[in-house]
Amino acid sequence: MLGYVIRRILIMIPTLLAISVITFVIIQLPPGDYLTTLVTEMQSRGESLDQGRLAMLRETYGLDRPMYEQYLVWVTGMLRGDFGYSFEYNMPVADVVGDRLLLTAILSGSTIVFIWAVSFPIGIYSATHQYSLGDYTLTFLGFLGLATPNFLLALVLLYFANVWFGTSIGGLMDPHYLGQPWSWGKAMSVLEHLWIPVMVIGTSGTAAMIRRLRANLLDELHKPYVVTARAKGLPPAKALVKYPLRVALNPFISDIGNLLPQIVSGAAVVSVVMSLPTTGPMLLQALRSQDMYLAGSFLMFLAILTVVGVFLSDLALAALDPRIRLGGGASR
Amino acid sequence: MSEVLRYPSAVLLGDYARAAAGLALTVLPLALVNVSPWIGAPLAACALLFAAFAARTAQRQFTRVTMDEQSVRAEGPLGAAIRWDDLTGLRLRYYATRRGREGFRPEGGWMQATLTGRGGRIRLDSTLDGFDAVIERAVEAVRRNGITLSPVTVDNLLALGIDPPEDPES
Q1: If I label A166, which of A238, A279, B15, B22 is the partner at 20 to 30 A Cα–Cα?
Q2: What pLDDT score was predicted for residue B169?
Q3: What pLDDT is recorded for position A332?
Q4: Is the domain of B75 the same as that of B152?
Q5: What Rg value do the Cα atoms of chain B yield, rounded?
């Protein structure tokens, strides 16, 4: 296992470096820079910025340096915990981001737990009760969940919460805790508000996971070894849990890596709709205004989530089911 | 007649290169940059792992695996010897850095066998010259000693082209 971990880490580090280069280059690709956007905005408002001040700002922000130099400053800065300077907010990226990374991590983690907790029993029930009324009902709900865009579900919930209960369900905490240091009250407030965005963001993921677990488990349940186990009188629960369920769980584990970035990036629109203080809305704004260090830091955060997520799911898979898969996904 | 098996030098060199690359990628930033604790902690953990990997590669370099009709012995640092009659377990795992949704794909992977017995535990990688011969001999011992193998081990044996023994519990 040590050899495996070493090889995976050795793939992970250059991957992150490559992603950082690609991220930085892509952010720089649009013509101009943050100051160009700023000047255009000012001109559209009828204001102007004199060329001397513009040159001074360009020098202050390091925008006059070659791209590779800017990249090296950014990357070595990240190692020191300095993610650069946000032009738009006029303060260090770390200060701008504040609690948002932590709140995003809490929201994403809770959503993953929600997806697993809901889809696991439903997927098993659907597979073991194929074509029953319960299976049809859950399948229908699953397709409904898959087909409903998260932001639409958020809008519907916001509307009904307002009309029926006369309350706003937006935000991730009571307004007076915004920007305040963490306290017991703030943590409780986050927990109180968390379930609605978790449900909204997790619905489509849950539906997809139910479908996948059902399909995989059905595949396994129809294999000859399960039929043999039943014919030999193995209790149904044991014939389900001992092998078929364990094999059908592989996609669950494999998907950890894909799920994390999907949830974080997919939650961006929901965060805008529900006024959630997560990274999504700020990333969208940073990309629009070419606030390159802020946008770059968010994108690197997403990349690290993906790479670390895939790494963890690989480790879990290696620990749980280290078998070779020959042609067509079937083991010989 | 006893057979003496070793890890090929090309494999050992590859592992030393991996350890060196890993140490360079983790220790250099720690030494040259004033790294923040959030990044320093995982880097230091990775550096320790690479150091452990280098030590394990050195241990393999100085290990000689000897196999005959009676036993298998790993002679060298942290060595052990297991008589075939005393074999109590065989575990065969497959690792690959490429995988699909369902599991590990065959490209670029390797097997790791763990033999357990009264004399201790011997862990062998499929990069060892004569690995298949050791496993065949171990499977014979498993059959004789009535040991139950895990489904993962059975599947991996089949992938190696070795018929696994019947499960004594079935």
Answers
A1: A279
A2: 56
A3: 32
A4: yes
A5: 19
Q: What are the strands of the beta sheet with B80-83, ordered from one edge?
A: B3-5, B64-67, B71-75, B80-83
Q: Which domain does B51 fall in, by range?
A: 8-61
**ipTM at complex level:** 0.82
The verdict on a CB contact (< 8 Å) between A251 and B102 is yes
Domain count, chain B: 2
Residues A318, A321: Cα–Cα separation, whole Å: 6
The residue of chain A with its CA nearest to that of B158 is: A332
Domains, chain A, ordered by start: 100-320 (1.10.3720.10)
The pLDDT tens digits of the residues spanning A116-131 come to 888 889 988 998 888 8
Q: Which residue has the higher pLDDT, A100 or B1?
A: A100
Contact yes or no for B103 and A325 at CB 8 A: yes
Half-sphere exposure of B19 (CA within 13 A, CB side): 19
Of A2, A317, A323, the CB nearest to B156: A323
Burial class (CB in 10 A: 0-12, 13-18, 19+), A206: buried
Chain A residues whose CB is inside 8 A of the B35 CB are: 79-81
**Beta-carbon separation of B33 and A10 below 8 A:** no
**Partner-chain contact A6 B99, CB within 8 Å:** no
User: A314 touching B, CB under 8 A?
Assistant: yes
Does residue B18 form part of some domain?
yes
Same domain, B53 and B20: yes
Do residues B80 and B56 both lie within one domain? no
B159 to A322: CB separation less than 8 angstroms, yes or no:
no
Q: What is the pLDDT of residues A9-48, one digit of tens each?
A: 888 888 999 999 998 888 888 777 777 777 777 777 777 7
User: CATH no. for residue B95?
Assistant: 2.30.29
Mutate to test the interface with A, among B49, B53, B99, B102 (most CBs of A within 10 A): B102
At A156 the pLDDT is 87
Could you tell me if B21 lies within 8 Å of chain A, comparing CB atoms? yes
Question: Pick from B19, B26, B35: which is nearest to A80 by CB?
Answer: B35
Check CB contact under 8 Å for B102 and A329. yes
Residue with tokens 């196999």: B67
DSSP states along A125-167 = HHHHTTTSHHHHHHHHHHHHHHHS-HHHHHHHHHHHHHHHH--
| pTM confidence score | 0.74
Q: Does one domain contain both B22 and B89?
A: no
Do B32 and B49 share a domain, yes or no?
yes
